[in-house]
Design goal:
Blueprint: H1 8-24, H2 28-36, E1 51-53, H3 59-65, E2 82-85, H4 89-101, E3 105-109, E4 126-130, E5 137-140, E6 145-149, H5 154-164, E7 168-169, H6 180-185, H7 193-196, E8 203-209, E9 215-216, H8 218-221, H9 223-229, E10 239-246, E11 248-249, E12 254-262, H10 267-277, E13 285-295, E14 302-312, H11 316-326, E15 337-340, H12 342-349, E16 370-378, H13 384-397, E17 400-406, H14 410-413, E18 429-437, H15 442-458, H16 489-501, H17 505-515
Parallel strand pairs: 2-4, 3-4
Antiparallel strand pairs: 1-2, 5-6, 6-10, 7-11, 8-9, 8-10, 12-14, 12-15, 13-14, 13-17, 16-18, 17-18
Helix pairs in contact: 2-4, 9-17, 13-15
Bound molecules: flavin-adenine dinucleotide and 2-acetamido-2-deoxy-beta-D-glucopyranose (6 copies).
């Protein structure tokens, strides 16, 4: 806007005229944005078919289809002025160019699993760039690689691999509806991390649309930016169109098991022992510990049940002696174990029964619930007495579970500066805290969010400190934020920057300054430029 210095005589008239103009064209940034799009899109792929404004009949269903946390689908949740469901790479380019030139913020959404809704909520006028139509998966099995577009889900990736090969897999997460775009850029992990590291440890190239609408690959974006998007969150740097990933070998059969013990059945002793051995177990073996609140044997009395959920990259006959030797306290029996192809194990980990046909992996219907998630890193075993206090705290909260995910193996070999993800050697396990509820309304939200925060407070003595580390893909706005529309370097460095990235934060700032010096790509926890 041009600066004007009106004389006081004219002031009234001008203000009145301005107000009139603003009112008459109150949706003009949006209209200008929409009219701008065709000028920057591929002529054979019109953007008109990709735009949903608040007037469109399918606006709501498109918006809601990929909101996994119901806390961000209420009537008071700020809504995008429009959703651009890109059908062609040029639509991504056009959205960036036109949003920038017409003063709209964009939020980028792939699978919509962000725990704090940052992919579809902002406090300032914004549009959502929705990637779900850009979901092709090109496998090159001769070379053991694949190009995967951001809008694909990890379930689709697992399924496509299995249709062509039974010797390859990919070390990504457990929930099949999670989007490739957010999952990988946040440093996503799964049950093969002890053998193969994180998703980002198996990425070899990427296509990124930058703030000027240019499509860059690893070579043209440069090593600093390519490093940054592998765990620094994509949304600070540009829009990731696709990732080139390295598939990893899996045996023809893997073994899964789920051993459950309540505290009355000795769960505390076994979980304590798990803390001592879990990082040292054979790297083919991953055992997640999952404490949750269940009904006790006495009427009306809750207790804690701990599930030991395991995956072994091999057959039962090799697993049993191994567990008998390194973790006999688990008491694992042959009858607890099932041998299945790797792809069937992804169905088991998604919490479906083991016989469920694997085409469930193609379902894009996500489970939706009100939730608050948080994370912590544990560097020394939690004493048994403290574990008992933790169980008591959980029983009082009722709607809560935890997952303890063991590190060690490959996770401890990779340098903490190899990618922005800094939580490598020295960590025993990652805790995810998950508080959930079904009641609508602000009262329930306040109650459960408050519980989640007090539980986190309670855990302080047992977890990492200075900084209290956190996992980006388990996004938590409580650890520090900036406003939607500006990113303060000092706030970022002091709070979420050091917790998510530790010493890697400064290199992320450097990469941000190279690729988006004007800070167009921003959200409450984005990386600021210098
Ligand atoms: C039920 C459930 C299970 C989960 N299980 C696991 C697990 O096993 N392992 C694990 O590591 N994590 C897990 N997560 C966390 C998950 O990895 C993160 O929430 C991840 O960021 C989700 O990616 P998305 O594309 O679905 O989310 P979105 O909400 O679409 O995006 C998340 C973030 O990434 C940004 N982003 C998305 N796409 C792009 C893109 N193309 N370019 C640039 N930025 C982009 C968004 O703007 C946002 O900031 C789980 C989450 C849920 C809800
Ligand atoms: C939405 O509809 C209203 C009323 O019909 C109209 O005034 C407005 O311009 C429309 N907005 C868009 C973005 O199409
Ligand atoms: C637990 O007990 C409550 C009643 O106290 C009951 O409503 C609920 O269905 C039970 N849950 C399970 C999983 O058995
Ligand atoms: C476990 O090892 C012990 C000896 O250390 C042996 O007596 C026992 O039979 C083994 N159990 C299984 C299930 O292999
Ligand atoms: C694995 O999944 C396939 C496809 O759904 C199914 O046919 C097969 O029976 C499953 N295998 C086992 C061992 O469950
Ligand atoms: C929040 O939770 C704590 C501990 O559970 C409790 O003491 C406190 O009263 C709660 N506050 C609110 C506002 O609910
Ligand atoms: C951010 O938005 C707030 C209100 O939404 C506004 O007051 C402030 O000026 C904006 N800041 C910037 C840097 O745009």
């Amino acid at each position: 806007m041009k600066r004007m210095k009106p004389s006081s005589l004219l002031l009234n008239t001008i203000v009145t005229m301005l107000l009139y103009v603003l009112q008459a064209t109150s949706d003009s940034p949006l209209n200008n944005f929409i009219h701008c799009l065709p000028h920057h899109s591929h002529p054979k792929s019109p953007t008109s078919a990709a735009i949903y404004t608040q007037n469109s009949s399918s606006y709501s269903s498109i918006l809601l289809a990929r909101i996994s946390n119901l806390r961000f689908s209420t009537s008071s949740t700020p809504k995008p002025l429009a959703i651009i469901a890109a059908k062609h790479e040029s639509h991504v380019q056009a959205t960036i160019i036109c949003a920038k030139s017409h003063g709209l913020q964009i939020r980028i959404r792939s699978g919509g699993h962000d725990y704090e809704g940052l992919s579809y909520v902002s406090e300032v006028p914004f549009v959502v760039l929705d990637m779900f139509n850009l979901r092709s998966i090109h496998l090159n099995l001769a070379n053991g690689i694949a190009w995967v577009q951001s809008g694909a889900t990890i379930g689709e990736l697992y399924y496509r691999i299995s249709q062509r090969s039974n010797v390859y897999g990919f070390p990504a997460g457990a929930c099949p509806t999670v989007g490739i775009g957010g999952h990988i850029s946040g440093g996503g992990y799964g049950n093969m991390m002890r053998k193969y590291g994180l998703t980002v440890d198996n990425v070899i190239d990427a296509k990124l649309v930058d703030v000027n609408g240019r499509i860059l690959d690893r070579k043209s974006m440069g090593e600093d930016v390519f490093w940054a998007i592998r765990g620094g969150g994509g949304s600070s740097f540009g829009v990731i169109l696709s990732w080139k990933i390295k598939l990893v070998p899996v045996p023809p059969k893997v073994t899964v098991f789920r051993v459950k013990k309540t505290i009355e059945e000795g769960a505390t002793d076994v979980a304590y022992q798990w803390q001592l051995v879990a990082t040292k177990l054979h790297e083919d073996l991953f055992i997640r510990v999952m404490p949750e609140v269940v009904n006790g044997s006495k009427e009306g009395k809750k207790t804690i049940q701990v599930s030991f959920i395991g995956q072994f990259l091999g057959e039962i006959d090799r697993l049993l002696p191994l567990v008998n030797k390194s973790f006999p306290e688990l008491g694992l029996q042959r009858s607890d174990c099932t041998e299945i192809p790797w792809v069937n194990s992804t169905v088991f980990w998604a919490d479906y029964s083991i016989e469920t046909p694997i085409n469930i992996l193609l379902s894009r219907k996500l489970s939706q619930i009100f939730l608050k998630s948080k994370s912590d890193y544990v560097k020394k075993p939690i004493p048994k007495a403290a574990m008992e206090k933790i169980w008591d705290f959980m029983v009082k909260g009722e709607n809560v579970w935890m997952q303890w995910n063991p590190y060690g193996g490959r996770m401890h070999e990779i340098s903490p500066s190899a990618t922005p993800f800094p939580h490598r050697a020295g960590n025993l396990f990652l805790i995810q805290y998950y508080t959930f509820w079904e009641e609508e309304g602000i009262e329930a939200t306040n109650h459960y969010v408050n519980f989640s925060r007090s539980f986190y407070e309670f855990m302080t003595p047992y977890v990492s400190r200075s900084p209290r580390e956190a996992f980006l893909d388990y996004r938590d706005l409580d650890i520090g934020t900036n406003p939607s529309n500006s990113t303060n370097l000092h706030i970022a460095r002091r709070t979420y920057g050091s917790k998510y990235y530790k010493d890697n934060f400064e290199r992320l700032v450097h990469a941000k300054t190279l690729i988006d010096p004007e800070n167009f790509f921003k959200d409450e926890q984005s990386i600021p430029p210098h």
